[in-house]
């Protein structure tokens, strides 16, 4: 938002003071903000099957373990898209191949949590708090990141897409959340100044409800200021074909226009494929297609801001190496993480490959974890936001030291 | 207090005039407080926790019968008769009286052969079947708003979340209403073991967590999609439904329980009931469509949670459910959830201990555990009053109840729950919706709730439009435009609303309400922090 828009908003609002006093993403004027680096986390809830996302096609155990759901080798019909001599990308993800080819998309295979839990809910909590094994950690690591980022005030500058606020963003620093779908800019009663003024009087305190109310109101204003006209010109009624492309496009536009919006989060469900997972076609390929299209839409909407952005795609754990009795997979361990962005040294699959046969497997059944997910987060945080080791320790307490290989993933 | 006095002493010299003013204010405030109508905190508390908040007249009625009478009445829902205005509406929801096999026959996908001849057949059937979820929704919301058996409605919602299924996974769009009516509602205040068994054997659960395909590898019935084990249900049965994630089971127990449950499924299309009965014996069926396929069962011996199972075949699964239902970890897990729902997001350990003991002593009698809960000092501890942040479901329903509007159209309620991230029957994952503040308090929720409060209080929600009615649907499932135009409702009267809520608003809220224009006052009450809590 430029200064003129900001002033216009402050004048339009019956609570201009509140805008200046608020302490969330939406309340902040960002002109004097020099650091334009951004981080986006895409969380695949339900444990996405990383072995069918980045396929270890050179590992014959893969094909032995998955007689019906394996993705064929690159030169076969319906085969994986060749990434290197060992790995191929699921063919449903063809829309992100240009990013791989440009060298801004990397994968970290056999990555994940050191905690052995195969509970979705515990494992998601562990990944969102970045404290594996500690269920009671109250705040998420993105919230702690906001706490150490320099700023004019203790301001959040974070947005979660959707109707709730996830664990990863919960904590003392306020963060906004907005559903960014088509209906997001429809007029609401609170858009009327006199109604707003009446409710503003109810929520002037520093209690959690008041803070949330003010953040909600301010982010709503910002959304209307940034998106309405453009959206209406560009998309007049054209529904997006798949996945979360609408939300991705709007999030990308918001982030491109507002460098003050530093952190964003979006979660996608539907990855818990215990039956009929599908090989080249079916449930998982459909989800992957939607994910790929949406990510590529997001990158397009970011435009030149992509060069300042890192996008992490992660999921709570991987799935069994062997397909189960119903052409699906059960809860496993190691998985693949995606790292995308202008400063990413992409075009490479990082991590040490542990193998898929016999005693190479974790507890005799799952892909082992050779890269702790916190290593990946740590190197991204260091390079994106220049965190010192003590700051990093606040965000990722007692995290493992990243290996040299992992460090190479991003440019300093 | 001592420190306060010292501060006063020190400040007195310089701040005497301000102090006088301050004391005057305190004096005035206490007069205002004394003359204001005494609030009904205990009654409001009971209606907030055992019900979805008060409707007009509820407080007066509760005062006349007394809290103990109210609790006992609510614990025995059949003792309360339903008003005809409600039963008349519920009677029209015909799909709720159909059992799972009938629902499949009547509304399920057409056979493969039929689909070949008619490309649109499957789509038409799916559209026709939408009435099932619509009617289940209608019944649930009408009950929550209008049923005087409020605790039953609270417990149905509580257990549905505990044993959550998702209406849009596979065939569950056919069975969601039947699951609630047959597996949840009859046992909501009964024995936990019955509730557990009913959910375990309902086709909706068997489908949702994939156990219907769970098959002993190499068994005579193993083929195609039914080739081997599936751990999904076995894991969630222990993690979510019984023991809890830290309840003391291992990955080996997950696999063993999956083996125990091999063959637990339902009668599939093309399996005529009579033929199967002759083949496998009558006891293997239940009228809800449950079917134990011994051909796919693992008959080897098993050690589960350290115990060697004595039974085999279908009895073995029943024995495993017995073990799980009676396990101390289950008692603790369920007690924690009940204490969290009825008392506090972070429930006191003393209460969880007491409830666990009652759960074990009564062998999982839910009514006894609730009775203990409602007579616990923790439940009546005023520090917890009003401190539970309402879930979207609770907020939307309690606001309509407080409004006193009669409803014939539940769609505005349903839409709001969806916008707030809590679509009814729409929780994808088996953990169900949480009921804590951290799960539901967020910036967007606050503005959306306020918007809902304004629309409701001004009478602009079309709650009196004609109800969902299948006869309005044409052959291809399109809804005919309704000729019945909604007559705008009268705005909510502020004084009536305040009385309904027991005049229990905080001084802060009362002050803001007073300052605002009359046409916004009712909305402000419904959109206040007081009303967002229960």
Short description:
The complex is a heterodimer of chains A (412) and B (534). With 412 residues, chain A is α/β, with parallel strands linked by helices.
**Distance between the terminal alpha carbons of chain B, to the nearest Å?**
31 Å
Order of helices and strands of chain A: HHEEHEEHEHHEEHHHEHEEEEHHH
Helix run count of chain B: 27
Number of strands of chain B: 4
- As an assembly, this protein is heterodimer
Round the Cα radius of gyration of chain A to an integer and report it. 22 Å
Question: How big a fraction of the residues of chain B is strand?
Answer: under 5%
Helix percent band of chain B: 55-70%
Mean pLDDT of chain A: 88
CATH architectural label of chain A: 3-Layer(aba) Sandwich
Q: Using only CA atoms, what is the Rg of chain B?
A: 27 Å
Specify the structural class of chain A.
alpha/beta
Mean pLDDT across the residues of chain B is 89
Terminal-residue CA separation of chain A: 29 Å
- Counting H and I runs of at least 4 residues, what is the number of helices of chain A? 13
Secondary-structure content class of chain B: mainly alpha
Q: What is the CATH fold-level name of chain A?
A: Alkaline Phosphatase, subunit A
Written description of the protein model:
The complex is a heterodimer of chains A (412) and B (534). Chain A is α/β, with parallel strands linked by helices and 412 residues long. Chain A has one domain: Alkaline Phosphatase, subunit A, CATH 3.40.720. Chain A contains 13 helices and twelve strands. In chain A, strands 1, 5, 6, 7, 8, 9, 10, 11 and 12 form a nine-stranded mixed beta sheet that branches. The longest helix of chain A has 28 residues. Chain B has 534 residues and is an all-alpha fold. In chain B, strands 1-2 form a two-stranded antiparallel ribbon. Chain B has a two-stranded antiparallel ribbon with strand order 3-4. In chain B, helix 17 packs across helix 18. Chain B is globular, with a radius of gyration of 27 Å. The interface between A and B is large, with 56 and 55 residues.
């Amino acid at each position: 938002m430029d200064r003129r828009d900001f002033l216009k908003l402050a004048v339009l609002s019956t609570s201009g003071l509140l805008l200046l006093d608020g302490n969330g993403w939406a309340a902040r004027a960002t002109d004097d903000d020099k650091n334009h680096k951004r981080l986006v986390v895409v969380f695949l809830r339900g444990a996405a099957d990383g072995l069918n996302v980045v396929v270890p096609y050179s590992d014959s155990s893969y094909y032995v373990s998955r007689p019906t759901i394996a993705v064929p080798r690159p030169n076969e019909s319906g085969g994986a898209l060749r990434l290197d001599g060992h790995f191929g990308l699921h063919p449903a993800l063809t829309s992100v191949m240009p990013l791989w080819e440009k060298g801004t998309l990397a994968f970290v295979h056999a990555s994940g949590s050191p905690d052995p839990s195969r509970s979705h809910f515990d494992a998601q909590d562990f990944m969102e708090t970045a404290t594996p094994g500690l269920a009671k950690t109250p705040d998420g690591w993105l919230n702690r990141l906001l706490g150490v980022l320099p700023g004019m005030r203790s301001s959040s500058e974070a947005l979660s897409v959707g109707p709730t606020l996830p664990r990863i963003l919960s904590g003392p620093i306020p963060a906004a959340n907005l559903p960014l779908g088509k209906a997001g800019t429809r007029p609401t009663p609170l858009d009327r100044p006199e109604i707003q003024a009446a409710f503003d009087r109810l929520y002037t305190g520093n209690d959690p409800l008041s803070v949330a109310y003010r953040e909600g109101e301010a982010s709503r204003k910002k959304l209307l200021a940034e998106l309405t006209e453009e959206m209406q010109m560009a998309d007049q009624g054209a529904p997006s074909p798949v996945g979360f492309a609408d939300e991705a496009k709007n999030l990308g536009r918001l982030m491109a226009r507002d460098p003050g919006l530093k952190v964003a989060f979006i979660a996608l469900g539907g990855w818990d494929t215990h039956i009929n997972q599908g090989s080249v076609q079916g449930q998982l390929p459909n989800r992957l297609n939607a994910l790929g299209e949406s990510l590529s839409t997001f990158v397009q909407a970011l435009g030149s801001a992509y060069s300042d952005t890192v996008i992490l795609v992660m999921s709570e754990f991987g799935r069994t190496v062997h397909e189960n009795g119903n052409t699906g997979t059960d809860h496993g361990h190691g998985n693949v993480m995606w790292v995308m962005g202008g400063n990413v040294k992409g075009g490479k699959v990082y991590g040490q490959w542990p193998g898929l046969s016999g005693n190479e497997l974790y507890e005799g059944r799952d892909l082992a974890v050779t890269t702790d997910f916190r290593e990946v987060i740590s190197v991204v945080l260091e390079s994106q936001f220049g965190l010192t080791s003590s700051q990093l320790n606040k965000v990722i307490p007692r995290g493992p030291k990243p290996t040299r290989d992992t460090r190479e993933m991003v440019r300093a | 207090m001592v420190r306060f006095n010292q501060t006063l002493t020190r400040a007195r010299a310089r701040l005497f005039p301000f102090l006088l003013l301050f004391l005057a204010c305190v004096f005035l405030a206490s007069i205002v407080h004394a003359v204001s109508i005494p609030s009904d905190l205990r009654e409001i508390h009971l209606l907030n926790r055992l019900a979805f908040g008060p409707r007009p007249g509820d407080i007066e009625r509760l005062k006349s019968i007394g809290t103990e009478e109210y609790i006992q009445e609510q614990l025995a829902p059949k003792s309360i008769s339903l008003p005809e205005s409600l039963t008349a509406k519920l009677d029209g929801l015909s799909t709720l009286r159909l059992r799972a096999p009938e629902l499949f026959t009547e509304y399920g996908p057409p056979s493969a052969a039929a689909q070949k001849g008619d490309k649109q057949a499957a789509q038409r059937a799916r559209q026709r079947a939408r009435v099932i979820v619509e009617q289940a929704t209608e019944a649930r919301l009408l009950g929550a708003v209008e049923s005087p058996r409020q605790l039953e409605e609270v417990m149905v919602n509580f257990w549905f979340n505990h044993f959550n299924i998702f209406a849009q996974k596979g065939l569950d769009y056919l069975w969601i209403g039947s699951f609630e009516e047959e597996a949840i509602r009859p046992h909501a205040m009964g024995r936990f073991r019955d509730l557990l068994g009913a959910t375990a054997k309902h086709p909706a659960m068997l489908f949702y967590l994939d156990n219907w395909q769970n098959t002993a590898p190499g068994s005579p019935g193993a083929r195609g999609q039914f080739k081997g084990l599936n751990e999904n249900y076995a894991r969630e049965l222990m993690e979510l439904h019984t023991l809890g994630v830290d309840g003391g089971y291992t990955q080996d127990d997950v696999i063993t329980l999956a083996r125990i449950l091999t063959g637990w499924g339902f009668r599939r299309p093309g399996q005529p009931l009579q033929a199967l009965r002759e083949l496998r014996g009558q006891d293997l069926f239940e009228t809800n469509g449950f079917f134990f396929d011994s051909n796919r069962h693992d008959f080897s011996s098993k050690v589960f949670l350290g115990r060697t199972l004595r039974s085999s075949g279908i009895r073995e699964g029943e024995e495993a459910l017995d073990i799980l239902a009676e396990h101390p970890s289950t008692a603790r897990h369920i007690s924690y959830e009940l204490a969290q729902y009825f008392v506090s997001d972070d429930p006191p350990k003393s209460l969880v201990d007491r409830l666990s003991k009652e759960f074990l002593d009564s062998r999982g009698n839910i009514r006894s555990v609730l009775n203990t809960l409602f007579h616990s000092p923790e439940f009546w501890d005023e520090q917890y009053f009003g401190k539970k942040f309402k879930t979207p479901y609770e907020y939307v329903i309690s606001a309509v109840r407080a409004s006193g509007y009669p409803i014939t159209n539940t769609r505005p309620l349903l839409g709001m729950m969806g916008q707030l991230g809590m679509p009814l029957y729409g929780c994808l994952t088996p953990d169900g919706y949480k009921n804590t503040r951290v799960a539901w308090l967020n910036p967007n929720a606050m503005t959306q709730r306020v918007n809902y409060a304004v629309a409701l209080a001004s009478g602009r929600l079309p709650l009196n439009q004609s109800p969902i009615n299948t006869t309005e649907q044409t052959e291809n499932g399109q809804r005919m435009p309704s000729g019945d135009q909604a007559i705008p409702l009268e705005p909510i009267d502020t004084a009536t609303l305040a009385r309904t809520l027991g005049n229990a608003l905080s001084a802060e809220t009362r002050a803001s309400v007073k300052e605002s224009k009359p046409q916004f006052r009712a909305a402000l009450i419904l959109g206040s922090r007081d009303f967002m809590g229960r």
